[in-house]
């Protein structure tokens, strides 16, 4: 903390209390949840995850593919299930992160340590450099997007029912879950989802190999990819942020988001899926990589959705 970045005590209190409550409920009450409550929570986690990864991240933040209106509406509504922040704010933070990665102008600069990059950056005002240089980030396409503008305007009215109310009432009225267990599952799921997103900013910038560019702090982290639905191939992603797979390979088992986008392309809702030439990737690895390989670099045949279906 510094005088340039005063603490935001409201955020600190909310974050600390949420995590304490979630841990307590998981240890004491969530074991009482019915089977379908567990399944409902997992479904909600995956749905909200697709809203973040396939929606705000790969579609809007990086324009790595294009989507027809029904898919754009679906993705932004799924994003609201996560209950994070207004879409335009999320997008500005992420684009600023990519433009000024691991500098003072990076909102969650990994050079400031694990805690700061994971969650500490939300507990204080942005560094002055973030405010100064963040203004240089082009957001004109987002400002012109009618879907994003609508959700930004009515965010609280859309997010609160989708993120907190709906997931609490469905278990009670559909399979007779108790209210306290249902509410507990909502809190646990919400905190789990937040930390899955945060792990990309922290774990995937500190631990893992760097087969594409050893000069970057971002790493290839399969554990993060598992929990963040394919977002942990981060060394690659920072080299080719416009690749819709956010990874060299569409390895579905550790990249559910790629499977989702491929399925939407098969339906005709997603199109113009961007990906770099393999020779370009190989050349980058040879010139700047750390010499390691792994799941992200292994040459294997990936079955596409179109071939499976």
TrEMBL record:
Keyword annotations for this protein? Fatty acid biosynthesis, Fatty acid metabolism, Iron, Lipid biosynthesis, Lipid metabolism, Membrane, Oxidoreductase, Transmembrane, Transmembrane helix
Highest taxon listed in the record's lineage: Eukaryota
Keyword Oxidoreductase listed? The answer is yes
Write out the GO MF terms: iron ion binding; stearoyl-CoA 9-desaturase activity
The family database entries (CDD domains) matched by this protein are listed as: Delta9-FADS-like (cd03505)
Query: What biological process terms from GO does the record include?
Result: unsaturated fatty acid biosynthetic process
InterPro entries tied to this protein: Acyl-CoA_DS, FA_desaturase_dom
Q: Where are the transmembrane segments?
A: 7-26, 38-57, 154-175, 187-207, 251-271
Listed cofactors: Fe(2+)
Q: Where is the Fatty acid desaturase domain?
A: 38-250
The membrane topology term of the UniProt record is: Multi-pass membrane protein
Cellular localisation: Membrane
Q: Name one GO cellular component term.
A: endoplasmic reticulum membrane
Domain notes for this protein: The histidine box domains are involved in binding the catalytic metal ions.
Record-linked PANTHER family: ACYL-COA DESATURASE, GH07782P
Tell me the protein family, please. Answer: Belongs to the fatty acid desaturase type 1 family.
The entry's protein name is ACO11 desaturase
Query: Organism, per UniProt?
Result: Acromyrmex charruanus
Which classification does the entry list for the species? Eukaryota, Metazoa, Ecdysozoa, Arthropoda, Hexapoda
As recorded in Swiss-Prot or TrEMBL, the protein's gene is named D11ds_1
């Amino acid at each position: 903390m510094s005088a340039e970045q005063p603490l935001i005590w409201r955020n600190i209190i909310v974050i600390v209390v949420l995590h304490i409550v979630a841990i307590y409920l998981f240890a004491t009450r969530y074991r009482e949840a019915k089977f379908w409550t567990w399944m409902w929570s997992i479904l909600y986690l995956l749905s909200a995850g697709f809203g973040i990864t396939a929606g705000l991240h790969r579609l809007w933040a990086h324009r790595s593919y294009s989507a027809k209106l029904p898919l754009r509406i679906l993705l932004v509504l799924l994003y609201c299930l996560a209950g994070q922040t207004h879409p335009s704010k999320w997008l500005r933070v992420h684009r600023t992160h990519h433009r000024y990665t691991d500098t003072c102008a990076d909102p969650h600069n990994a050079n400031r340590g694990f805690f700061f990059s994971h969650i500490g950056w939300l507990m204080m005002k942005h560094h002055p450099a973030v405010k100064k240089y963040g203004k240089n980030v082009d957001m004109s396409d987002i400002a012109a997007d009618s879907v994003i503008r609508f959700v930004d305007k009515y965010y609280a009215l859309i997010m609160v029912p989708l993120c907190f109310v709906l997931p609490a009432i469905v278990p009670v009225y559909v399979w007779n879950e108790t209210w306290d267990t249902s509410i507990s599952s909502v809190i646990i799921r919400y905190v789990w989802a937040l930390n899955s997103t945060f792990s990309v900013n922290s774990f995937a910038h500190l631990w893992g190999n760097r087969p594409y560019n050893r000069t970057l702090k971002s790493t290839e982290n399969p554990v993060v990819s598992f929990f963040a639905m394919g977002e942990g191939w981060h060394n690659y992603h920072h080299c080719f942020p416009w690749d819709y797979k956010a990874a060299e390979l569409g390895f579905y088992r550790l990249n559910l988001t790629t499977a989702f986008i491929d399925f939407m392309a098969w339906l005709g809702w997603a199109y113009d899926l961007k990906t770099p030439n393999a020779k370009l990737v190989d050349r980058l690895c040879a010139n700047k990589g750390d010499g390691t390989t792994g799941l992200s670099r292994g040459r294997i045949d990936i079955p596409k959705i179109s071939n499976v279906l």
